[in-house]
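Before the break, one more example. Copy the sequence into your notebook; we will annotate it together after we see the structure.
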Amino acid sequence: MPVKVPWMKGVFPALVTPFFRKTEEVDEAAYRRLIRHCLPQVNGLVTSGTTGEFNYLSRQEQQRLVEIAVEEANGKPVVAGCGAEGTAGAIALAKDAAQAGATGILVVTPYFMHPSDKGVFQHFHDIARAVDIPMILYNIPQVVDRYLPRPVVEDLADLPTVVGIKDSSGDLTYTMELLEYVGDRIDVFVGHDEVVLPALAGGVSGMILASAQVFPEVWQAVLRLAAEGNLAAARRAQMQVQKLSRIFCRHGGGVAVKAALKMMELDMGPPRRPLKDAGGALLHETRAEIQLELERLGKIASGVSAVTYPTGPLVDRFADLEITAEIIATHELRTGSGSAGDGLHQVQIDLVAGRKSGPLGDAYALQLTYPLHGREALTAILEPNLTVRPSTLILPTLPQKNLRQANMIYGPTQLGVARAIVDLLQLGLIGPDSVQNDVMVALATLHPKALDRRALYHAAYQAARGAVQQAFTQEVR
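Here is what the structure looks like once it is written out:
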């Protein structure tokens, strides 16, 4: 009967493997910086796992990573990833890890060629016989394309060197089944960042996570609070990092984590080919979300200064359209302003309406013909090819510096403004004459860091509704 080992507890980062950008060789100095960065907040280290791109590393490189980790670990346990598609390769890696001083090994289910359950058992059994080092089984069906069968795990748990299993499936039903059948004999670690708290509540001993090298202190807090039974506080702690955890899990771990670490001034280089660099594998919007979440956690400084929403006389806010207060008065243009939402999702809409045959119509056409760079105007539409009436342009007041910011304007804000106009048209606030003969321009101001599309839509809707109501209920001068 195996005996649980005392070091199989707590938070272990699944370390990325740093590479030089030009040569793709392992950057040992960067690896040491990474370990020193996260070591104070973790209970151990994991080298050459999935996040570490083990399948792109040579045998010699994997052993060297273990040696460096042992040198830097200051006595904390080092678990060496020893994943291989065949038994002989895994045994060779396990022997190398033991020679390099690893505390334990992490061995994934055989992949590519799928052996029978008996073959899977024999794979781990042969490794256990070949090298006397504590072994953690590794279930990650997302990349292996099969679960490590629970009956096999149950049999393997009787081997004296099998001390635990890392479950990266994110399938809590499977995790609970492991705890039920083998939790009294070996430790179960959660390996899926999105489900840490429910797994801890179920009884797992700790976690091996890609995100534990980015915000290990948060996972230590979740671990402590869960152990204390303070689940409400533990939930709040996990929710702080839930979006980043989801991004890391959904974008292949290492690629997204390297992007985050680079933003934290820990440049780990690109992934190895054929994986793409963080700049090519992640959408601009996703990269911006990573950056904003790291800013919110205090991991990096904010790159956006405070946003000033337009103030002062409303008639003076349309200078970019070459519509002056005098023009507004002379041509009896309607103006209105509305603001809704708070924090990052405050939206202000300043609106001007008037005849399409007048100066506002000229300004409308000019914005379409010669758009302002970074502030391109767009028509208010409910869906593709369905524009609202009166014809309305939405003009951002702030430059759109990346695709994520543009998507917030040319998406939820656009739809919110359009829906507000249509609703007020149905209520009869906007008359038939205006529908046929007027155009409108809505200046939209929103925070460059806005992320919640639903919150932004509702704020844009309420702000636009307020602006239109003000414009069409005031007495035209």
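DSSP finds 19 helices and 15 strands in the chain. The CA atoms of residues 214 and 261 lie 7 Å apart. Try to locate both features in your own notes.
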